[in-house]
Amino acid sequence: MSASAQSRADLVRHSAYEFALTTVLLLVVVSLVRWLAFPGSSLAIGNPHTLFAVAGLAVAVVIAALMYSPLGRRSGGHLHPGVTVFLWSSGLFPGRAVLPYVAAQLAGSVAGTALAGLVWGKTVRQIGYAAVHPAPGTGALELFLIEGAALAAVFVAVTLVMARPSLRALIPAVIGIGVGVVIATLGTVTGASINPARAFGPALLSDTYEHFWNYMIAPLVAPALVGFAHRAWRTRRADAPSSASAPASAEA
Predict the structure, then answer these.
(1) What's the chain's average pLDDT?
(2) Which residues have C-beta within 8 Å of that of residue 205, sequence separation ≥ 6?
(3) What is the mean pLDDT of residues 133-158?
(4) Helices (H), the chain
(5) Nearest CA to 101 among 218, 11, 29, 202?
(6) Total number of domains in the chain
């Protein structure tokens, strides 16, 4: 097999892993909403703040576990179009792989949501397939800025960890914790989607599109901006030694 054919095969395989991982993520997320938010559930939590705190903790554990899993290690465990865009804009992920990864993640979003519907039946339809909603009165610009800023903060934390090779093994934990904190703190305000894959399948299957584009675009713009800034910082840092050595060379 030629190198290009091997590369294409790897991309297909890794995209399939992303599909499987995102399917599991959405199955878990929709199941959490079914059990924690549905009034008739024996595990229902009436207090919204407590509900999102518990959900945030659970999602943090699931995200980290999926990223650390064998499939996550092989594909990179993105589970989120914003992660893919962040790595691409940072110069750490090939551009040709962005669309296959994002398509696989969005397909996994639909598959996981639909699978939750098959497992839990009409209850999932009654909760609108766990479609994300902001608090009443939350404006489009406000939603965009809050969701974007929250996710940007998570990725800034990731870049700080990436800068220290000895800590890079902690990146899945940092992402999981960051997402969990956002869900716990902003869930009652924005719905705390912060992941296009979280919003896509539930919106599609429930036919609920209020604020849809906010939930799809803000979590892409913020990581892209952080990624470009990270790339510029890395480039500047890499150029610094050669710049510093130039006067010494001239003097010699």
Answers:
(1) 92
(2) 110, 113, 114, 117, 129
(3) 95
(4) 3-37, 48-68, 70-75, 81-89, 98-120, 122-126, 140-162, 171-190, 196-206, 212-251
(5) 11
(6) 1
Query: What is the domain-level CATH number for residue 15?
Result: 1.20.1080.10
- Specify burial of residue 9 (Cβ count, 10 A radius: 0-12, 13-18, 19+): exposed
CA distances from 125 to 22, 71, 114, 181, 212 (A): 20, 30, 10, 28, 18
> What is residue 240's predicted lDDT score, i.e. its pLDDT?
72
Residue 250 lies in a domain: no
Q: What is the 3-state secondary structure (H, E, C) of 127-173?
A: CHHHCCCCCCCCCHHHHHHHHHHHHHHHHHHHHHHHCCHHHHHHHHH
Token pair of 48 as six digits: 């919204």
| Residue 241 pLDDT level (bands cut at 50, 70, 90) | low
Residue 114: which domain range?
3-239
| DSSP run (H or E) holding 207 | none
| Residue 207 forms part of a structural domain | yes
Q: Tell whether the torsion through CA atoms of 162, 235, 144 and 31 is positive or negative.
A: negative
pTM: 0.91
Whether the Cβ atoms of residue 101 and residue 15 lie closer than 8 Å to each other: yes
Q: Which of the 8 DSSP states describes residue 95? A: G
The verdict on residue 161 lying in a domain is yes
Give the chain's end-to-end CA distance (angstroms, integer): 51
Residue 54 in any domain: the answer is: yes
Task: Give the other-Cβ count within 10 Å of 178's Cβ.
Answer: 21
pLDDT of residue 6: 65
